[in-house]
Design a protein that fits this description.
- The structure is a single chain.
- It is built from 15 helices and 24 strands.
- Helix 4 (128-139) packs parallel to helix 7 and helix 4 runs parallel beside helix 15 (549-570).
- A hairpin with a 2-residue loop joins strand 2 (41-55) and strand 3 (58-69).
- The chain is 32% helix and 23% strand.
- It is globular, with a radius of gyration of 25 Å.
- The protein has 571 residues and is of the alpha/beta class.
- It has helices spanning 19-34, 74-81, 96-104, 128-139, 153-166, 200-210, 227-243, 289-297, 317-325, 396-399, 406-421, 431-439, 444-450, 482-498, 549-570; strands at 2-11, 41-55, 58-69, 86-88, 121-124, 145-147, 247-249, 254-259, 265-270, 273-276, 279-282, 302-304, 307-316, 341-343, 349-356, 360-363, 373-376, 385-394, 426-430, 467-468, 471-473, 508-513, 520-522, 536-538.
- The chain has 3 domains: 2-88, 2-Layer Sandwich (Alpha-Beta Plaits), CATH 3.30.70; 116-303 and 520-570, 3-Layer(bba) Sandwich (FAD/NAD(P)-binding domain); 307-513, no CATH class.
- The chain has a 7-stranded mixed sheet with strand order 14-15-18-13-22-19-21. A 5-stranded parallel sheet has the order 7-6-5-11-24, covered by helices on one side.
Length: 571
């Protein structure tokens, strides 16, 4: 096929183009570039799509497409058209065993029909890392057992909805724990900055589509699924793992790891009995604090790591659309996302994280007496508000004494404050009130750095929080230490210069956003194994090696390859 890039189609923001009409337009523009006839085109496939809003409100959809021609020489057509954005499309696909061969330098893989079936692989956690690791192993001859402390996704959804209504937390099944992991109750964003040299990202997207995600996630520049669709996807993946001979056990929390006389993990003790294991994949989430404690007791090598904390910030989605598109309510464009980054005068990073267009702020707590928030969107992203975490980077020097669990204790301290100031409800404060309270006790030099032009573009009377879980107005400014509050304000003021009205006094601040990533890293070697415990494979976000659904899924796939390679080399 021939790949044609930079195909521009004008988008007035309101005219919705049907699928057939879009393909007609793409073919029309592509054949002009290729100098062939429309009748010569046998097939057209969209490979990438993005929106160019650099000259808003003049907007363009930008496409990359693959064209299959009838009986034409591809090389000749590409050479004749002399277009730098036209090339031969390379048909590259993910290959599990090619990746294994490359990593372990195995020239020829000889596998009998039962390869891997006799190896007992126990995966702790059914988030993206655990599910994708389990699926790849099951597809390639293994019979993995996935244990999950929380409930299946249907039961989990009912429990979470009840929590949002009543405020009564279930410590085992909640927004953090249960089938699909924390990402199940999020926006379902599938973009990642992880390089995809081994095509694990492509494999992850193919799996998402195969099990229920829309086809467009393959080519959108900022793909997302939405929590409503993601729930069905993870359930379908579980069904495939079971069909292939694997097992998934819910409401089953790992309580200990038992090694043999050589220090190799051989059993996993759980609340539902023990499981024999030749290897154990630690695909725990970033909130599995009791599991981190168990690992510390087992002297598994870990270290505290940098992470970030902050608040959720809400604006009317119309304000964000106007800033990004030049149109408040476009009918032919999705609710606009944004990405913001800044560096404070003392070198600290402040940035947007898990931005949810048309989304909800959710109570994402997992422990009694503590409150943490997150963002969530449904697939339509049709809510009235945009929300994003605005978070500040911190490292072990900010929060602890070097102890492995010092970051966890820092999180707990912040979450207890957030819980207490609003009696267990999500605490909310207007940005103007937050800023005034923080700067009241700041020095003149600090005030001069933080007091920029402030244009309030939000009508406070008609603007209210969009949340899952009860909320109450409260002094959110009391949650973080003063230095982090000042960094947050400095970031917000800088963002007001990037998106007009972002630092409006009536923007809503809620907190605390404390579960952005794991506060610890479980150390592993190049073969994916714990540096000091044989048979233990730390994997995904909780282990400190991922930062979202896609990177966690990719790390799960990588871990499956490493386990298969290890078994292959031992035969």
């Amino acid at each position: 096929m021939i790949r044609v890039g930079q195909i521009k189609i004008k988008n007035d923001g309101n005219t919705i183009i049907s699928g057939d009409e879009l393909k007609r337009l793409l073919v029309e523009k592509a054949v002009k570039r290729l100098r062939v006839k429309a009748g010569d085109v046998e097939e057209v496939l969209i490979r990438k799509h993005s929106v160019d809003a650099r000259k808003k409100p003049e907007l363009f959809d930008i496409y990359v497409v693959d064209i299959l021609l009838k009986g034409n020489s591809e090389e000749k057509t590409v050479k004749t058209c002399r277009d730098k954005d036209v090339s031969i499309a390379k048909d590259v696909q993910y290959d599990f065993w090619e990746n294994v061969k490359g990593r372990f330098d195995v020239k020829d893989i000889q596998r009998d029909k039962g390869f891997g079936a006799d190896k007992k692989v126990v995966i702790i956690g059914s988030g993206p890392a655990g599910l994708f690791c389990g699926l790849e192993l099951a597809k390639n001859g293994f019979k993995p057992v996935i244990i999950e402390r929380g409930s299946d996704v249907d039961t989990r959804s009912r429990i979470v909805e009840e929590f949002w209504k009543s405020g009564k937390i279930n410590p085992s099944t909640n927004v953090q724990f249960g089938e699909g992991g924390a990402g199940t109750f999020s926006d379902g964003k599938l973009n990642t900055v992880v390089k995809d040299r081994f095509l694990r990202g492509s494999e992850a997207l193919d799996i998402f589509v195969k099990f229920g995600a829309p086809e467009r996630i393959r080519y959108e520049s900022k793909p997302h699924i939405g929590t409503d669709i993601l729930k069905n996807v993870v359930k379908n993946i579980r069904g495939e793992i079971i069909r292939l001979g694997g097992e998934v056990v819910f409401e089953c929390c790992a309580t200990d790891l038992v090694p043999d006389e050589n220090g190799h993990i051989r059993k996993v003790l759980t609340t539902k009995g023990e499981f024999d294991a030749d290897c154990v994949v630690l695909a725990i989430g970033h909130s599995a604090r009791d599991t981190f404690k168990m690992l510390m007791d087992r002297e598994v090598r870990m270290e505290p790591k940098p992470f970030a904390v902050g608040f959720r910030v809400e604006h009317p989605q119309k304000l964000i659309n106007l800033s990004q598109y030049g149109i408040e309510e476009p009918k032919a464009l999705p609710a606009s996302p944004y990405k913001l980054t800044a560096t404070t005068h003392d070198g600290r990073g402040v940035y947007s994280f898990c931005m949810c267009p048309g989304g909800y702020v959710v109570n994402a707590s997992s422990e009694e007496g503590g409150l943490a928030v997150n963002g969530m969107s449904y697939s339509a992203r049709a809510g009235k508000n945009a929300n994003s975490a605005i978070i500040i980077t911190i490292d072990p020097t900010d929060y602890g004494d070097g102890a492995v669990d010092s970051g966890i204790e820092f999180q707990r301290k912040l979450e207890k404050k957030a819980y207490d100031i609003a009696n267990g409800r999500i605490p909310v404060e207007y940005y103007g009130d937050f800023k005034e309270a923080v700067l009241r006790n700041a020095g003149e030099e600090e005030k001069s750095k933080l007091c920029g032009e402030n244009i309030d573009l939000i009508e406070r009377e008609s603007f209210s929080p969009q949340m899952k879980g009860e909320y109450a107005f409260a002094p959110v400014h009391e949650i973080l230490p003063k230095k982090l509050n000042l960094s947050f304000i400095e970031g917000m003021e800088k963002f007001g210069k990037m998106i007009q009205g972002y630092n409006s006094e009536s923007a809503l601040i809620s907190g605390v956003e404390s579960r952005t990533s794991s506060p610890v890293r479980i150390l592993r070697n190049e073969d994916g194994e714990s540096v000091n415990v044989a048979g233990l494979y730390p994997c995904g976000e909780g282990a400190g090696y991922a930062g979202g659904i896609m990177s966690a899924a990719m790390d799960g796939i990588r871990t499956a390859e490493l386990i298969a390679g290890r078994v292959l080399c031992a035969r």
